[in-house]
Amino acid sequence: MLDKHTGETRHMHFYDLPSLLRPGDCLVLNDSRVLPARLIGHRIPGGGAVEVLLLIDRGNKTWECLVRPGRKLKTGARISFGDGQLTAQVTDVLEGGNRLVQFEYEGIFLETLERLGKMPLPPYIKAELQDPERYQTVYSREVGSAAAPTAGLHFTQELLKQVEDLGVRLAYVTLHVGLGTFRPVKEEDILDHEMHSEYCMISAQTAETINRTRAEGGRVICVGTTSCRTIESWAAEDGTLKESAGWTNIFIYPGYRFKTLDCLITNFHLPESTLIMLVSALAGREHVLAAYQEAVAQKYRFFSFGDAMFIASGIPEIGEKPENPDKSTVSEENR
Questions:
Q1: 145-186: pLDDT as tens digits
Q2: Residues 6+ apart with CB under 8 A from 235
Q3: What is the b/e burial string over 280-303, where b = at least 16 CB atoms within 10 angstroms of the residue's CB?
Q4: Which tens digits make up the pLDDT trace of 304-327?
Q5: Where are the beta strands (DSSP E) in 191-325?
Q6: For the chain, which end, N or C, has fewer CB atoms within 10 Å of the first or last residue's CB respectively?
Q7: What angle do CA 190, 194, 200 make, to 5 degrees?
């Protein structure tokens, strides 16, 4: 746990999370489900092996994709997957190198993907997962992500029930995670960094739950940076939400004023990423870097299947019910 104001830390297990929550809080979770979006096939004619990674559904059976090898997949190139169960043609080469690929198939595309596709695991995970559900949250339901909202991988159904039994509300948003989220910032001026857009949704029920939580003095605790970016994308200046859907390219970095979020559960992120900038916007760059140094010293695991931290205001004593010591000032600081 990291105190976002003082930088104080405490080492705990994730199953200790209920001890850091209190009745009236609200956990906001991203229910997006990862597509088995990695397709291995071959060019026709010619037979050369190719790999296609689905990124964004552009309609009319066409997807924006990453492809390998790019030099072999120019406009007009044709591809076969699964002995012809699925075929495709490259229809355009986009700026930056992504391709528009139009697919040809019979039946339902998602069912075809379930048969032929593989999980698009990060490159640092070398082995295929024996159980693909390990790369899905237990509450995933809206198919569309190219990568898992990994902070949610720590939850089990039992832990979620334990949290609900405490009187903590659960609210679900959807943000379909794109690979652009993980692209490092290379520009000298971070304002020159181009964020890729991702589709997200907030239901009327979720908006009402979060608004009620704030009105009654509870904390809005986002599980993962994707949940954070979703609610902050659609929040009004006073922090209230309404039913919303659309594309967001929100870039949260130090100096950003959070409108709705109070606390964050997040994994440990890559250096120079927009994700670590978001975390630094909430807790301060010095506090975050010091916490990361401590995590390295303690041999914590980083990235998708790594450990997590809870960023909040104040660290309760062992056995003490957590308070929200600056709730009275949250409206000034974060709203």
A1: 988 899 999 999 999 999 999 999 999 999 999 866 555 556
A2: 241, 259, 260
A3: bbbbbeebbeebbeebeeeebeee
A4: 788 999 999 987 765 555 555 444
A5: 198-202, 220-223, 244-248, 263-267, 308-312
A6: C
A7: 120
Which of 73, 91, 116 terminates a domain? The answer is 116
CATH code of the domain containing 261 = 3.40.1780.10
Handedness of CA 230, 222, 181, 236 (dihedral sign): positive
Distance CA 238, CA 215 (A): 11
Q: Is residue 306 part of a domain?
A: yes
Same domain, 29 and 149: yes
Q: Which two tokens stand for residue 156?
A: 């089990």
| Residues ≥6 apart with Cβ < 8 Å to 284 | 4, 7, 254
State the residue range of the domain holding 83: 38-116
Residue pair 154/9 in contact (Cβ under 8 Å)? The answer is: no
Q: Give 156's DSSP letter.
A: -
Nearest alpha carbon to residue 264 among 326, 322, 309, 296:
309
Residue-level pLDDT at 335: 33
106 and 197 in a common domain: no
Report pTM: 0.85
Over residues 63-84, the pLDDT tens digits come to 999 899 988 899 999 999 998 8
